[in-house]
Amino acid sequence: MHLNLPINRDKKSGTLYVVSTPIGNLEDITLRAIKTLKMVNLIAAENPTHTKKLCSHYEIGTRLTSYNQHNHKTSWPGLIERLNRGENIALVTCAGTPGISDPGALLIKMASENGICVTPVPGACAAIAALSVCGLKMDNFLFAGFLSNKSGKRKKELQELAAEEGTIIFYEAPHRIIQFLEQLYEAFGNRGIAVIRELTKVHEEVMRGHVKEILTIISQREPRGEYVIITEGSEKSKENETIPEKLEETIKNMLIDNISIKDIADSVAKNHNIRFRSAYREVLDLKRKMEEL
Question: Into how many domains does the chain fold?
Answer without folding.
Answer: 3
